[in-house]
Structures are given as C-alpha cells and as structure tokens.
TrEMBL record, chain A:
Domain Aminomethyltransferase C-terminal: 894-980
InterPro entries in the cross-refs: 2Fe-2S-bd_N, FAD/NAD-bd_sf, FAD/NAD-binding_dom, GcvT/YgfZ/DmdA, GcvT/YgfZ_C, GcvT_C, GCVT_N, Sarcosine_oxidase_asu
Domain FAD/NAD(P)-binding: 170-313
Assigned keywords, A-Z: Oxidoreductase
Location of the SoxA A3 domain: 502-586
Name of the molecule in the record: Sarcosine oxidase subunit alpha family protein
Keyword presence, Oxidoreductase: yes
SUPFAM superfamilies (alphabetical): Aminomethyltransferase beta-barrel domain, FAD/NAD(P)-binding domain, Folate-binding domain
Family membership noted in the UniProt record: Belongs to the GcvT family.
Organism: Shinella lacus
TrEMBL record, chain B:
Protein name as catalogued: Sarcosine oxidase subunit gamma
UniProt-listed InterPro entries: SoxG, TrmE/GcvT-like
Origin superkingdom: Bacteria
Organism of this sequence: Shinella lacus
Record SUPFAM superfamilies: Folate-binding domain
Transmembrane segments: none
Automatic annotation (TrEMBL), chain C:
Name of this protein: Sarcosine oxidase subunit delta
InterPro entries: SoxD, SoxD_sf
Pfam families recorded: SoxD
C-alpha cells in the first residue's frame, strides 16, 4: 500500500519506527504517531462501519470528538473497545481491530442495511418493532444488538491496576492550547498553585498543528518552551494525557490520566490510569472550539475529513490527506489549510466557499469557487469525486480527499455540568459557555475568541484576573508578535445543510442520523431538542454529539422557524469522554474492595479452626469444625450442647462498646433508653432498650455503671456505628446543655463470652477476686485483676445463652494470650470455642431477641418488654410517639415461640404463620418466623415468630407456610423461652 | 502463670522501604482520648501541660477532644492518676489498645496520602505539627504531620491491617 | 463522583466523610401535642431552594452540623455546629 507519509516535517521521530497491527495486518508507524495518523500514513482510509447502515467510514477528526474511527485495542483482559484511534498514541506491538463489521471490514454483510434504509429511519425502533410484544426480547432486541452496535467488552478480568488521588490548586487550567498556556504561565509565574490538564500526549493543543511564528519561535516549539517552563515551576503541575471529564459540586473536577495507555511494556507497579479529583479555587476553561462538519450528500465517505484535522495530520504528523484535495469551507480556516497543503507539495484543486467574499488574503494556486457549495461526494470505500454547484451549474471534480469546515463551536461541556446552559450568539454563530458560572472562567476559543494572538492575550488576561481574586499579583504574560495568524472570521451565514444533494447527508456520524431523520422528527412532532435526540438517537453514544449537536440544533431551528438559541441544547452531563470502570473503581477491588475489620481474637479463633463469616466489615467465627463432623450443623450442635453441659468461649469483641462519661451521663442514658437508668448502681449492668422517635425499637444492649460518672454501653454489632452516631446526635444536636462525653471503645477491648455451668470455675482460675454468686451476682460489672495483678480487665455477669455466663474484656493486645490461657485452664472442664451460629441457637432457645425480631416495626410491648418502659420519665427518645393508640392495638404481631408438631418436621426463618385450616392467602397471614434453629435441647426445630396476638395464643395449633417452596408444616405456638424459663441456670 | 504477651495488631508487618517512601508500624504505647465537657473553658493550655508532665504528645482530634500519645505504655497507676487529674472539666478514655499507629515518610509520602485523603496536604494548608481526622480511602484515620515528609496515621485497631494493606498498595508505584 | 461539604471545624471535605440525617427540625417538647410530634417525625418539606439538614462529620471531627444547602444548585450557604446553633436559638 502506498505511503502517505511526507518526507519531512511533523512532530514525529522517523528514526523510531513502530510496528502495529490493524485487523491482523502488520503495519508500521513512527514514534509520535497517533493510531489514526499511522493508519492514514499507511493509506488506510476505511477504518470502521457505521452503526445502523454499516456504511464504510474513515477518520474524520484528529481529536476527542471522533465519531467513526472507534477500534478495539489490545487482547484478553486488556481488551479496550470503542477506543478513538485519534486519541490513541501508537506504541510498538499495538493491536487494533475495527468494529461493527462481519465477516470483514471490506466486505460487510450488514451493509445491506443501507438498502433497507427507509425502514431504519428515525424512530424505527418505536414504529417497527412494536408487535408482538414477546418478540422484543426474543427477536428484535437480539437482532438490533447484533446488527447495530459498538465494540464488545471482554469478560476476562482486567490484569492492570488503577489509582485515584486528590489534588488541590488555586487555578485549574483545562486545555493547554494558546489560551491555556498563557493563563497557566501568567498564574504560575505569579506563584499561584496551578494544575494544567490536557487530554493529549503533548501540551500545546492547536499550536502543535499551527504554522504561525510566535515572538520569533515556530508555534510548536513555542508550545514546548511553555511546557518546559511550566514543568520547571514548583507550584505548577502539568498533566498531559489527562482528560478533565466533569465539574462537580464544591468546585471539584474529575479527570482521568492515562498513565500507561501509550506504553508497549507496562510497569506492573504503576497504574494504567489514574482518576484525579481536583479541588480548584478557580478554573480557566481553555478547551478551544470544535470544528463543525458540513451536511451534504455522502459527507461520510472515507477521504472526507474536517479541515482542522487535515491540517493536524499534515503539519503535526506529516501525513498527506491524498493526492488531489479539495476544500469546502464556510470560513477562512480552509484557506490556511490550502496554503499549508501547497507548501507541503499536496495539490489543492479547488476551494469551495459558499460566501461571496472569503479568503481575501489567499494567494495560492488552487481554484477558488465563491458562492459555491459541494452538494455530493461520491465513492465507495474511498472518496472519488465531488459535485460542486455554483449558481445553476453543477460540475463533478475528481478528488481523493476533501476537507470541510462549517464553522466553530466552543467546547462548553464542562461549563454546563452544574446546571448552566450555553448561550447562543448570532455574532459567533455558536453556543458560548454561560458567563462566569460559579467560578469557571472560559478563555480563548472556548468563549468564541478568534485568532491565535487574541487567544494568547485572552488567556493571559483572564488568568491574571482570576488569580488576582485569590490575592496574587499577576501580570499577563506577553509573547511578542504573532506572524501568520489568520483569524478565521465568522461565516457570513451559517450553513446547517446543503440543499440539492442526492446522497445521505449525515448529521450524526456515530449514530447514523442524517438530515432527513431530523426533518422526520419535526414532522412527527418530536421537534423539541430533547425529544429529537431520543427520537433520532442523534447525540447519543460514546461521542455524545460533539460534532453533530450544533448542526442538529441548527436544522431543527430551520425546520421550526426558530433561532438555534430558541431551540436550545440538550443537557450536558459528565462524562465529557468515556471513562473506564477501572479508573472509577481505582484500587477498591479485590482485597481493597472494602476494609476488613479484624477482631483482636481473630488469630485465636483461626488457630482453633474457626470458619469465618462476614458480618459487615467484621470477620466473625461462625463455628469451629472438628475432625469427623460431617457438616456445620453437627459442629454447631456439639458447641451448643457443650455450652449447656460444660462451658464455651465465644469472641464477642465486635459488639459495639461506648464509654459515656461526664456529670450528666446518667441523665443522658435515662433519655436515650426507654427504661430507667438514673438509679443504676455502680458495679451493675442493666439491659437497655433504645427506641427511635417513632416509638419503634432501635437497638438493645447492656449498659454498666463503672463509676458514678462513667458508664459502658454495649450495642449490637450491626448497629454499633449507627448507635454511636445516634448518641452523638442526641448529645450535640438535641441536648447540648447536658455535660456528657462519648467515646467508642469497641476496638480497645478483646471481649469474650464464657458461658456454661463450668464458666465460673474456669474464670476463677485466672481472676484474682472472688467471682462467686454472692460476691459477683447476676448483672455484676467490675474491673477485675488477673493472674495475680499481672493484668486488669473488666468482667460482666451477663448471659445471652441463658447459662451461667460472663463476658470478660481484656485490653485488646492481651486478648490473644488470655483467650489461650483460658483454653488451657478450661480444657479439663471441657471448655470449647463456639461461634456465632451456636450463639444464635443458644439465644433462640432462651428467647432472646436480635435484629431479626427488632425489625423496625416492633415496640417494646410487642416483644414482651412493655413493663420495662418507664413512662414516668419526663422524656426519652420515642416516648411521645410510643403512646399512639395503634401501637397498643390488641392484634399487633407479638413475640411467640413456635415448634413443629412432629419433631421430625422443620420450617425456615421467613415462613408465614396461618391459622389451622386457613387458606394460604395474604388475608389469612398471621405473622412470620423471625428466627429458627435446630435446638439440641428441645430436640427439634424451634422458632421465634411475630404473630398477631401471639402472646395470647400459646398452645394453638397453626400451619407454618413457606410460599417459596410450597411447604406447609403443622406447628404449635408456645412461650418464646424454650430453655430454663425460671432462670435458675442464669442465677446459679 | 501463662505467658502474657501483648500482640501488636501489625505484628506480622515489616516496614516497607524504598528511596521514595517508608511505611512502618509504630509501637503500641499510650493513646488517651481526652474529652472536655461542653461548658468548660478552653483547655488547650491545660492539655498541653498534662501531656508534658506525662511525657505524652497532645494532638487535637475534634473540638474539645485530644489524643494524648506516647510510644511507651503508661503504667496502670499513672494512667489512673492522669484520668483523675482530668476530671471534672474533662474525661479521659484509655485507647492505648483501641488505636494503632503507623508512620509514612519520604519524598513520596504526600503523593501516597493524596490517593487516600481529600485533605489538602500542601505545607501551607497543613503545616508540620498539625493533626486532622479524615478518611484515607475507606478508613477513618487520625493523621498527624510531624515534618514536611513525615506523617503518622492512627486508626481503629480492627482496621489497622486493612489500612496497612491499602497504604502498601498506594505505595506500590514508589517502591 | 465527588463533591465537597464545608465543615466549620475541619474545612471542606468530600461528602463520603459525612452521614446525612435529613431535615434539621427542632425537636418538640416532650409534652407537645401529637400533631407537633407527627410533623417532627413524619412530615418533610421538599423545598426548591434553601434547605437545612443535619450532617454528621462521621469520618472527621464527629460533630453534628446544620448544613444549609440549595436543592437546585447544591450550593452550601452555611454550615455550623449543631450544638452551637442550638445555643444561639435558645
């Protein structure tokens, strides 16, 4: 294939060739190429097939707006679909594949869609695939998905790492073209903290494609010199390959840096992409302007290209666009391109200008046709000829490349991410960013400034003004005379489409939306800009209409007889360009997905063979299997029986523990619990119920009075964080007049429950004080001395299992040693570890509630705690609402036990209760099983349930109905305490 | 008498060292959380004095709250004495086992931390000697800047290992 | 993606450091009539514009704040410690 690479010039390194593949074929580019420029240099014009009609498509732009040249890059887990070839830097070994073609790019069966095109017009989804409904899922959608689409994501795991970070600055400059560089240098020299971000590999923006001379230096060398100075300033960070994709509340900008997307051999220790969250006091939006295509027949044939892009490929990459070129331009930028092409020896056969008097300064050889338009382009997989209409005459001209320029649209996206709307300017013939919306200052072409010198000047001034508001004395940097600066000058008339063409005239290339689709949308009543977008799909998908939206708005305006300003734009939202999920997730996957919270007894549990279960962030020991046990049930049953017979040790360190100090601590507790706490004696623990303001139970636990003004509250594991927040709310927001001091001490203590008839004997062996029933009765709570004063801890005589039981709290680092010491001394007494599964069986046997029962709909009386509530107290959280009539209604669901009639039968948690012989209907629902377990003590499944009037129905025969499995179990309601109802064991 | 050994939360972790960055566990010594009552007059001077007397460093945690931190464990009697000395204007809560500290230092320390916290780590905004409470990644932490490139991080004991693993990951590109 | 909430004690911090509770309403007196309690517990305005809410700086100073936020622009107009605000109101 012929090379289109020019023998000299360009910002490329010819001495550094790079091999790459496109659809499996080996090609060569050079260092400094983009994938797009390398393909063009190789004469590869056809690079993809269009979305709906599978038309041949070529490279249209040289930047982020590229709608056609989307490729799949890489392989296996590194497959990256929909990569814009214009933004992908070439590296050795790059593998690129075209998309949306089958069986091959050159011969694509889907191109038959073009023949069916009347059928595929705007709204075709809605009209064509309406009936029959089941066909949507089975026929239409699979068909559409196969026929129309972009690249496919891989199912393999991404082997690379991603990273996130924060950055802070006085001034963020988005874009490093003339305005951006001028603003950044001005602010940087003044000492402001500056971050400059540019999406390309090199700083400079349009300067890199420019032939002008600035202060005696060629534009590209000028850009390099500016970048070098910026990098030398300690207060400036220059981020290249970094796209600022969104503007968020609090002046935070999101940006993604492609750290290793341009490298052949990745460093495994570095991220491939880094997500930046940049907090800026002020921002210069120097994003430049996007050139608009012209809408004429066949304007999508490979070889038709944006004029600015052609200039970039020519000047920056030294790639000739073709052998014979024509330029269709509605402004003076096309003449500059013509001059550059001719200077590089590329023939320009015609400049077609719809204006009467454009290009006054052009002195080249090309024929200039004024008052003329290109109506049609012809060719299959490559441009062959164009039709030029001048007056009443149409001539065909053979060319293999055509540049087009319909005008310039400021890139306003970021300025509109927080609700601002762009403003139409007739003078600039484009939408301008909203004026100074919330500290974001547009500069240069992004606000419609025309010409290189004017953009440099505007950037410098606006940068100086902005940092002056932060207290910096800045002088706008002056760069000297600019030679060869040809202002583009606004077109005499905006040209939304060229009438008279025969071929399809595309408005949105990526979504295959052509002029007639927009006409149809208006005709069918979808002319509103937001409706037209959905009806035609124009402006959707990966490019979000960067090239097409303004033309579409212009066409809608024409059809509706309005100004483009009156039609308005669709809503701009992040992201400016697609951002990978990897970058958004950052390091938070795998073991970093969420932090693991470890109990100080984790090592002890692991040594004793614990199987762990995730409980929030904690890993709790669930059970401790022993050799020969065939399943977890057997292990759990053995642990339960051993606690009832001998003793067990369970890690309860993850229960929430809060110290409550200060002179008003007792009063505070009295207000946050529904039961009384003022008179709790020192050295005693009490069970407490915390309500919400609506009267429902929030959480439960014990609170011990350690000193007159020092209490220790325990909460459930799940509600530990919430309860602390709640207490802080009560202390700070509700009753700041109370002197109460709160501290979470959950992590300070290793806490173990030692439960069972032999627990006292085992503990007494290591505790110095007498813990006999007289000295240390039920609900005693004291500091204790261990091992002859070697260590101190806290001992609480509380029981979740219903057995004689204690909880021992040890300063966390010593927990491991103490647990092992207990295991050693307790071995002869049969002490075994037990996990949360056994703990759960034990508490269900004893009828103790957890958040299975405290489900947000129960009041104390529902669980049999009615008498605990101290309505005599003047105030407590939930008091007022608890006294509502409905919460005392006689048929409320209340706690009850349930056992199967046949001990061999079983039922599950969540199953519903029906009266005997009642049909399984919602109306007959009596309540549900909140907790269930196999009870070794009872010898069958047992359950706790919330059942209407449950406490009055002990002994009633019912049916437990599992609607999911269609199971019905005959059962009997009973008191919710299956074990030791007289609490003899507890008080032993 | 069994072998009573304090088992540090980061017992298994050896320092991560390179030219750019060093991450190391700090000794589990003394951490005392001190909370002043809402109506008490400014206790800053008092806190500094008490900390000095006890060989501890006082670091602000929240309005009216400090962490008093030292590398050595405080003896039980001394701790009782210190707690009593705080009352009644303030209360002390022993968190010596509840918080675990680690140190991050080196020329890349700021870059590493910026991956986790949204606090502006510029020296002017966050000078040496200052402490802040902030999220580092997903973990709430108390961060103290000792010197330009020298930071101390204190987290809940249960999250110490997770924080270490996260920080080690953040350091990876500089190791 | 990211946004900042000003804390009067800690400065601007990302929203991830906070827990939001909802409307900053004054708690009625314990013996207030049922209607007042009903309003306090269940009824919420849904204003377009300024809205006062309780925010907790959970991963920072752990203070409860009253943050006044514009529901249209997300601009935070004021942010003050809830205890201090209550002291001023009293």
């Amino acid at each position: 294939m012929t090379s289109y690479r020019l023998p000299q010039g360009g910002l490329i390194d010819r001495g550094h060739p790079l091999s790459f593949t496109f659809d499996g074929k080996a090609l060569q580019g050079v260092q400094g190429d983009s994938l797009a420029s390398a393909l063009l240099a190789n004469g590869r014009r056809l690079v993809g097939r269009s979305f709906k009609y599978h038309r041949p498509r070529g490279i249209l732009t040289s930047g982020a707006a590229e709608p056609n040249a989307l490729m799949t890059i890489g392989s296996s887990g590194r497959t990256e679909p929909n990569t814009r070839a214009t933004m992908q830097e070439l590296y050795a070994g790059l593998e690129a594949r075209s998309q949306n073609r089958w069986p091959s790019l050159a011969f694509d069966i889907g191109a038959l869609n073009s023949l069916a095109s009347p059928f595929l017009g705007a709204g075709f989804y809605y009209k064509t695939f309406m009936w029959p409904a089941p066909f949507w899922e089975k026929v239409y959608e699979p068909f559409i998905r196969k026929a129309a689409g972009l690249g496919r994501a891989t199912h393999e795991a991404d082997p690379d790492s991603y990273d996130k970070c924060w950055a802070h600055c006085d001034l963020l400059v988005v874009g490093s073209g003339p305005a951006g560089l001028a603003a950044a240098l001005t602010a940087g020299r003044a000492g402001a903290r500056v971050i400059v971000a540019d999406e390309h590999a090199m700083a400079g923006g349009s300067l890199l494609s420019e032939t002008a001379i600035i202060g005696g230096t060629p534009a590209s060398a000028f850009a390099e010199a500016c970048a070098t100075e910026l990098r030398s300033l300690p207060n400036v960070t220059l981020l290249t390959r970094t796209t600022v994709f969104g503007w968020y509340d609090g002046n935070v900008f999101g940006a993604v840096e492609r750290v290793q997307r341009h490298i052949a051999t990745l460093s495994p220790s570095r991220p491939v992409e880094r997500l930046w969250r940049i907090v800026a006091k002020g921002t210069i939006l120097a994003t430049g302007a996007e050139e608009r295509p012209l809408v004429f027949g066949g304007n999508d044939i490979p070889g038709v290209m944006m004029a600015g892009a052609m200039r970039t490929y020519l000047n920056r990459y030294a790639v000739a666009p073709g052998r014979t070129t024509a330029i269709f331009t509605a402004n003076d930028s096309g003449y500059q391109l013509a001059a550059d092409l001719e200077a590089r020896g590329v023939r320009v056969s015609a400049i077609v200008d719809p204006r009467a008097a454009g290009g006054a300064t052009y002195a080249g050889k090309a024929r200039v046709l004024r008052d003329a338009v290109v109506t049609d382009a012809h060719g299959g997989r490559s441009l062959a000829a164009i039709d030029i209409r001048s007056g009443s005459r149409t001539d065909r001209l053979k060319v293999d490349a055509l540049a087009m320029s319909g005008g310039f649209s400021p890139v306003v996206h970021l300025a509109c991410h927080r609700g601002g709307r762009p403003v139409w300017s007739d003078e600039k013939a484009g939408f301008l960013p909203p004026a100074n919306f919330g500290g974001l200052t547009p500069a240069g072409a992004a606000r419609g400034i025309d010409g290189l010198a004017a953009c440099l000047d505007d950037g410098a001034r606006r940068g100086a003004n902005l940092v002056a508001t932060f207290g910096f004395t800045a002088t706008p940097v002056a760069f000297g005379t600019v030679e060869g600066d040809v202002p583009v000058s606004a077109p005499a008339k905006t040209l939304w489409s060229i009438p008279g063409g025969k071929g399809k005239a595309f408005v949105d290339y990526q979504n295959d939306v052509h002029r007639k689709d927009l006409d149809l949308a208006v005709k069918e009543g979808y002319g509103h800009v937001e409706l037209a977008k959905r009806y035609t799909t124009g402006g959707m998908a990966t490019d979000q209409g960067k090239l097409s939206n303004v033309n579409a708005i212009g066409l809608l305006a024409e059809a509706r007889g309005l100004s483009p300003g009156a039609v308005g734009t669709t809503t701009f939202r992040p992201f400016y360009t697609p951002v990978s999920f990897g970058a958004l997730a950052g390091a938070h996957h795998g073991e970093h997905f969420q932090p693991v919270r470890r109990s100080p007894l984790h090592g002890w549990a692991a040594r004793h063979g614990a199987v762990f279960v995730e409980t929030g962030l904690w890993y709790r020991s669930a059970w401790f299997p022993r050799t020969g046990e065939k399943d977890w049930r057997e292990s759990v049953a053995r642990e339960v029986v051993n606690v009832r017979r001998n003793a067990g040790l369970c890690d309860v360190s993850m229960l929430g523990k809060i110290e409550i100090c200060g002179p008003d601590a007792a009063e505070f507790l009295n207000r946050v619990y529904c039961n009384a706490f003022l008179k709790l004696p020192i050295g005693k623990a009490r069970y407490g119920l915390m309500l919400r303001e609506d009267g429902m139970i929030y959480d439960d636990g014990t609170t011990s009075r350690l000193e007159e003004n020092r209490f220790l509250m325990t909460t459930t594991t799940a509600y530990a964080a919430g309860a602390m927040n709640h207490l802080e709310f009560c202390a700070q927001a509700l009753w700041p007049d109370l002197d109460v001091r709160l501290a979470s001490v959950t992590d300070q203590w290793a806490q173990m429950a030692i439960a069972g008839p032999k627990s006292r004997k085992i503990l007494q062996a290591i505790i110095d004080e007498d813990i006999g029933d007289a000295a240390f009765p039920y609900l005693a709570a004291h500091e204790v001395s261990l091992f002859g004063g070697a260590l101190h801890g806290r001992l609480f005589r509380i029981s979740f299992s219903g057995e004689l039981a204690y909880e021992l709290a040890i300063p966390a680092a010593y927990g491991d040693s103490v647990a092992e010491a207990l295991m050693a001394t307790g071995r002869t007494e049969g002490l075994m570890p037990y996990g949360v599964e056994a703990l759960s069986v034990l508490r269900i046997e004893k009828g103790h509630v957890t958040h299975n029962e405290i489900n947000g709909t129960v009041v104390p009386a529902d669980l049999g705690f009615g008498k605990m509530v101290s309505l005599a107290k003047p105030d407590f959280i939930g008091k007022a609402m608890l006294q509502r009539e409905g919460l005392a209604a006689p048929d409320r669901p209340r706690l009850v036990g349930v056992v199967p009639l046949d001990p061999a039968d079983t039922f599950r948690t969540g199953a519903h209760i029906l009266a005997k012989n009642a049909a399984a209907t919602l109306e007959n629902d009596q309540g549900y099983v909140t907790s269930s377990a196999h009870s070794p003590h009872v010898g069958s499944t047992i359950g706790l349930a919330l059942v209407k009037r449950g406490d009055e129905r002990h002994g009633e025969e019912v049916v437990v109905w599992n609607g999911l499995n269609g199971e019905f179990t005959s059962a009997r309601l009973c008191p919710p305490v299956f074990f030791d109802p007289s609490n003899e064991k507890l008080h032993a | 008498m069994p072998d009573l050994r304090a088992l540090p939360a980061l017992a298994d972790r050896t320092p991560l060292v390179s030219h750019g960055i060093r991450l190391s566990p700090l000794p589990e010594g003394t951490v005392l959380q001190m909370i002043v009552g809402p109506d008490a007059p400014d206790q800053t001077a008092n806190v500094e004095r008490l900390a000095n007397e006890s060989g501890l460093a006082a670091r602000p945690l929240s309005p009216g709250q400090w962490l008093l931190i030292g590398d050595k464990p405080t003896r039980r009697a001394d701790m009782k004495h210190l707690l009593a000395a705080l009352e009644p204007q303030a209360s002390g809560i022993d968190q010596s086992h509840g918080r675990v500290r680690m140190r991050l230092e080196g020329p890349m320390a700021v870059k590493v931390l910026a991956k986790g916290t949204a606090v502006d780590l510029n020296q002017r905004a966050f000078p040496p000697g200052r402490s802040v409470a902030t999220l580092i990644g997903h973990i709430a932490a108390h961060l103290t800047r000792h010197d330009v490139e020298d930071f101390e991080i204190a987290v809940l004991r249960g999250l110490a290992e997770a924080c270490w693993i996260d920080l080690a990951g953040m350091c990876e590109e500089f190791v | 993606m990211a946004s900042l909430v000003p804390c009067p004690h800690c400065g601007s911090r990302p929203k991830e450091e906070f827990t939001i509770k909802g409307a900053a309403l004054a708690r009625p007196a314990p013996d207030a009539d049922p209607d007042s309690w009903f309003h306090y517990v269940y009824l919420r305005e849904n204003p377009r514009g300024a809205y006062e809410e309780y925010w907790h700086h959970t991963a920072g100073c752990r203070r409860w704040l009253i943050v006044c936020r514009d529901t249209v622009t997300h601009q935070v107009n004021t942010s003050q410690d809830a205890a201090a605000a209550k002291g001023q109101a009293a």
